[in-house]
Amino acid sequence: MRARVFVTLKPSVFDPQGKTVTDALHTLGYSAVKDVRQGKYFELDIDSTCPDEARALAEQAAEKLLSNPVIESFRIELADGAAV
Amino acid sequence: MKFAVVVFPGSNCDHDAYYAAEHVLGQQAEFIWHKDASLKGADVVILPGGFAYGDYLRTGAIARFSPIMAEVKKFADAGGPVLGVCNGFQVLLEAGLLPGAMLRNRSVKFQCEQVLVKVEQTDTPFTSACRPGQVLKMPIAHGEGNYYAEPEVIARLDRNRQIVFRYTNAQGIPTDESNPNGSLANIAGLCNEQRNVVGLMPHPERACEMALGSVDGLILFESVIKSVSQGAVSNAEASAKAVAVAR
Fold first, then answer.
1. How many domains does chain B fold into?
2. DSSP character at residue B231
3. Alpha carbon distances (Å) from B209 to B15, B105, B128
4. Is residue B203 among the annotated active site residues?
5. Of A29, B90, B144, B190, which is the most buried if we count CB atoms within 10 A?
6. Catalytic residue (choose from B13, B34, B71, B86)
7. Set of chain A residues whose Cβ sits within 8 Å of the Cβ of B57
């Protein structure tokens, strides 16, 4: 199984990088882009064919290491097979 | 007195901390590799600045799982004095030994400059020789020093007097102009509830000789030497061993 883990800053947390990207997009003329929040994306190749098991493992990995619960939250999507 | 300076792959202020303890203060210092399983009888532990594990993932996120960190936690739980400087502070935050987290500086730049911080609390082992409200000049060098915690955590830190250092002007007033990175409540350094674990973003070990522009960092080392020699903090490694044996 493959798991996609999206780690994003909590809404209450200021994102200086996202703000800088927003400003850069405005400079390029994309004024319709109101706000940008920058996050992290991980692809986990998991040695399991059981979706429940793969999800549980990905959740553990995201809680323990991939995210910092003080400032970030995460979302997991599962995909079988090779292409994510 | 013996200082343990923990060395992670990517630490780069380890030699500065060692130099300050051994050569400026005339104490004994020893490097402890992050894979070691013992603090080798140290009285004080320093987690130095740098870029442990290249700051991959998040600052301090991978270093907190280094084998030595279990010993550092035991040492801290037993009351031993632990100082985290810059990246060492970030490791303490990731390890949960201190509350909160670091965000990118609001300038989105790596900031390398002298700053002023006010000593808010003098009842920690690293500030016991300071005057209340003393303003210290020390350098910062970081990209992620923008301290963040939930509002109720900040309120609790304030109530428990855990905010040890704040960025201020020369008069000791925490203004927005004196805040180099956007830290909430101008927080530059914290202690835990037991007050023996202290973390700060400025580098006291780089402010120990006039050749480096300031000697204000000396007082953190002098404080811990005073605290340990007066027995204000216990011989934590001995107590940690006693606790382990009792278990």
1. 1
2. T
3. 15, 28, 20
4. yes
5. B90
6. B86
7. 65-66
Q: What is the pTM of this model?
A: 0.91
CATH number at residue A49: 3.30.1280.10
Quote the domain boundaries for residue A45: 2-79
Q: What CATH number did the domain enclosing B103 receive?
A: 3.40.50.880
Structural domain including B151 reads 2-246
In a domain? residue A84: no
Q: How far is B219 from chain A (nearest CA, A)?
A: 32
Residues of A in contact with B100 (CB under 8 A): 70
How many domains are there within chain A? 1
Please judge whether B150 and A14 are an interchain contact, meaning their C-beta atoms are less than 8 angstroms apart.
no
Q: What is the secondary structure of A16-73 as a DSSP string?
A: HHHHHHHHHHHHTT-TT------EEEEEEE-S-S-HHHHHHHHHHHIIIII--TTTEE
A54: in domain? yes
Q: Do B94 and A68 touch (CB under 8 A)?
A: yes
Q: Does the model's ipTM exceed the 0.90 cut?
A: no
